[in-house]
Amino acid sequence: MFALTPNARLASVRYEIRGALTRRARAMEAAGQHLIKLDIGNPGRYGFAAPPHLGEAIAGHLGESEAYGHEQGLDVARDAIAEQQRANGARDVSIERIFIGNGVSELVDVALRALLQPGDEVLVPSPDYPLWTAATILNGGQPVHYRCPAANAHLPDPDEVEALTTPRTRALVLINPNNPTGAVYPRPLLERMVALAARHRLLLLGDEIYANILYDGVRFQPLAEIAGDVPCLSFCGLSKTYLACGYRVGWMSLSGDVAASRNYRDAMQLLAALRLCPNAPVQWAIPAALHGPRTIDQLTAPGGRLHEARRIVLESVAASPWLDLVVPAGALYAFPRISDARIGRFDDEAFALRLLEEERVLVAPGTSFNAPDHRHFRITLLPEAAQLREVFVRLERVLQRIATENPSMADSVSA
Predict the structure, then answer these.
(1) SS3 of 334, please?
(2) How far, in Å, are 79, 80, 286, 352 from residue 76 at the CA level?
């Protein structure tokens, strides 16, 4: 038999969040081993449930959901999204410029496929949510990563970003609040990034899926409000704020000058039409979500489950001789770093495998997120606080073994 050859672009694509480590974890579970899994921000796997009024809205409209719908989504759902975007300061947003998809992931692909010519460049943060890098490559583009290092609180330097811009650059991706770091971008930084995009005629791509998951009074600044006339796509959905990952409901809103982006909007509509339409029944949850109570606030406020989980992580890192952490201000993750002074050479992927094999804990290595520093790992804040305490006990045991294998480092800690 002949061998089927896959797309050569896939050789440059990585998505280790569901990669080799996860496959090994599944094999261990199939063999009867109990694991603590902190690798994916999937609320339903940790005992969270979507607000009841979302399910009620879906059930109440099943009879209206049996036919193909509009390729961009139900009118009533897009109208609710447009209303929210205008309330947040987005300019020139209308129902015709709203696209609903089967999750934000599908829409990221649509947005880049409609934009890129072979070899076009997209500015992507490092670390990033790896879908952005992968989707750029798969649509013929070239991701150009700009640094968001721990030394700068995981915030980018706009001057460094601008230095990476070339005549082939077409778009600038901003993930805010950030996955994996939890950084929330202040308004002055966003203003500088928008000005950069305006100077270089770039499309702004704002991944804002965690916009309402914030801690300790931190405020979120919508990108579209600052963007004004600069074309901007803002991405959001039900999966995180409304704890409904399995619904697979996301949307993107195109704001800014209508004439400048008319052809691009039409190209996205063509691509949306090719997949016929998004899943019809679950779209009825969108107006219910946007017009109803925002229950996530109870979880992120002091005493709430997410706030308490984050507190345990911060306390555990502070007590560790091995770990440093930029305090996450938003999202569902922490992105600890192994201290250079405490442990010398370090390989995040080897560490994650050891943690899984030796202590039955699954985390995501930092390099999974296109981070050049091999000293990070990402954990989710979704488990119960008591389970997170146990995780750090196990983490410390593995890090102690690694340090012991390098005596000079172990001596420096004991001293």
Answers:
(1) strand
(2) 5, 6, 9, 45
CA-to-CA dists, residue 6 to 10, 59, 113, 240, angstroms:
7, 41, 19, 33
Band of the pLDDT at 200, cuts 50, 70, 90? very high
Residue 390 vs residues 318, 360, 383: alpha-carbon distances, Å:
15, 11, 11
Distance CA 100, CA 110 (A): 11
- Kind of pairing between the strands at 203-207 and 232-237: parallel
Location of each CATH 3.90.1150.10 domain in the chain: 8-49+298-414
The residue written with tokens 């073994």 in the block is: 401
Neighbours of 165 (CB within 10 A): 18
CATH of the domain spanning 8-49+298-414: 3.90.1150.10
Model confidence over 283-314: pLDDT tens digits?
999 999 999 999 999 999 999 999 999 999 99
- Token digits for 336? 């600890």
User: What's the pLDDT at 403?
Assistant: 87
Please state the length of the chain: 415
pLDDT 10s digits, 41-59: 999 999 999 999 999 999 9
**What does residue 51 show for φ and ψ, rounded to 5 degrees?**
-55, 140
Domain 52-291 falls under CATH 3.40.640.10: yes
Closest among 155, 161, 154 to 188, alpha carbons compared: 155
DSSP strand pairing (361-362 vs 36-37): parallel
Q: In this structure, are residues 79 and 229 in contact, taking their beta carbons and an 8 Å threshold?
A: no
Query: DSSP assignment, residue 86?
Result: H
Alpha-carbon gap, residue 331 to 44, rounded angstroms:
16
Range(s) of the chain covered by CATH 3.40.640.10: 52-291
d(CA 145, CA 133): 9
pLDDT at 216 over 60: yes
pTM beyond 0.85: the answer is yes
Q: 337 — phi, psi (to 5°)?
A: -130, 140
250-284 tens-digit pLDDT: 999 999 999 999 999 999 999 999 999 999 999 99
Two structure tokens written together for 81: 């999204």
Q: Tell me which amino acid residue 243 is.
A: L
For residue 13, give both structure tokens. 């694509």
